[in-house]
Amino acid sequence: MSTQPWWQTTVVYQIYPRSFRDTTGNGIGDLPGITEKLDYLATTLGVGAIWISPFYKSPMADFGYDVADYTSVDPMFGTINDFDVLLDAVHERGMKLIIDWVPNHSSDEHPWFIESRSSRDNPKRDWYVWREPSPDGSPPNNWVSSFGGPAWNYDDHTGQYYLCTFTKKQADLNWRNPEVQEAMFDDLMFWLDRGVDGIRVDVAHYVMKDPRLRDNPRLTARPMTITKDHGEYDMFEHLYDKGHVDNHALYRDVRALLDSYQPERFSIGEIHLSDWEEWASYYGDLDELHLPFNFSLLHSPWTAADIGERVAAVEAAVPAGGWPSYVLGNHDDSRIATRFGEQHMPVAAMLLLTLRGLPTLYYGDELAIPERFIPAEEQLDPHGRSLPGAGRDGCRTPMQWDNSHNGGFSPHGAAAPWLPLTDDWQDRNVAEQLEDPQSLLSLYRTLLSYRDSSAVLQSGDYREVDAPDGCFAFTRGEGSLTIALNFTDVTLELGFSGKVAVTTYLDDVAAPGVLRPNEGLIIEPG
Ligand code: NOJ
């Protein structure tokens, strides 16, 4: 029996709840829709955990990442009873449920903020970050919002600015006030007490700010390490508005809270940092976040050399006793099928599910759903509206279940889905791919089932091995398994021997000495 905690051996599936399955017919996915599809997740696909993006009460300025009540379900997603039913159904299937926790900011419609903005002497004034205007009336410092424009919004009523790192409807909480920590921890315990298994911490390294709110140094050029355009935001060194050293004390407190529960509860933090040492600091002495998300593959060019380099960097950065994590797609970045190219999806699947670490699979990537082009003027996403080209609607389109009305996303007679499906939904859907033994979905099923029964893939060590150009190869479990991935469109000769356990071609003619174009192999000793 493995002594490893569940979060090291499982595979997480990320659900964007608006887009998974609509049971009420309002065009928006809901919690009962997730419950309805649990057998697909647990049995057909075979993942062990789900992470659900926010479903809390929200005015939806950032589609739920603007929380107006941390302890309720937005009626558009269902009720708290629907949540309890979902959680029980997850546990009945032996799965785990991870929820999103958004500590950096609340909605401006949260009762805490409504009180805070009501007067300068309101007891909750200091729960948010309020400052006097500069002498010329401009914002208190030069911080910019990650969605564009100043990170400050002027409040006419009280004559001060409040800090808002994202939209103006997302006010940054002041975590230097101990009452905020107490209230946020109470709200978190509401879910932990109900039995949720873990949390995904939104923008985890943004939470603590420089107490003096100093100006960030301005850069003369956009850093080469930035892969996604955030406009003006990229033109500053974010010395003072994120990554503050005091985050570490906060995550030690979060960890102590999680560790006070039995069975153990888990945390994975959204940490976008290209400095590996700083990134790894969020493991602490294994007493902070259980895992920081690692976005390096998601932002990588699709070449064997780039991917190999990034995996080596992750392996080198993770502290002794720590555990890596990998992700290729999520609700903030364009769909991988479009970014990497559909022909590369089988190798991407094998890469994600064979590396050492916790993989997170974004809903629909198991079908290679492509990015849907949505013009800037039609974007619903606030980021897409403020910065043309940055829109995230295209990766959040409804899940494609079958070729019935609206791809089986919503019932007959339903309102139009909140976003259009991708154009190919009639051919690209779960039902179609289940019929095809060589579809990407069939490959995911094969890989997940293989991984589920392979202690080596779940826990074995990782070593890169020599391979021809264009191939990235590594072993797991002291050489027990060799994984060879061809990133090119040509056949590559390999020096490997053994027995092919899985080929991404899902046929029976694969050979351990040869990699066909874009083929991946799991090779067992012969
Ligand atoms: C990160 C989330 O992933 C993103 O969707 C959201 O817009 C921002 N945090 C703000 O909460």
Please describe the topology of this protein.
Layout: H1 6-9, E1 12-15, H2 31-36, H3 38-45, E2 49-52, E3 56-57, E4 69-73, H4 80-92, E5 96-101, E6 105-107, H5 111-118, E7 130-131, E8 152-155, E9 160-163, E10 170-172, H6 178-194, E11 198-201, H7 247-259, E12 266-269, H8 276-280, E13 291-292, H9 304-317, E14 325-327, H10 336-339, H11 345-354, E15 358-362, H12 382-386, H13 430-435, H14 440-452, H15 455-459, E16 462-465, E17 471-476, E18 481-486, E19 492-493, E20 499-503, E21 514-515, E22 520-524
Parallel strand pairs: 1-2, 1-15, 2-5, 5-11, 11-12, 12-13, 14-15
Antiparallel strand pairs: 3-4, 6-10, 7-9, 8-9, 16-17, 17-18, 18-22, 19-21, 20-22
1-deoxynojirimycin binds at residues 62, 65, 102, 166, 202-203, 270, 331-332.
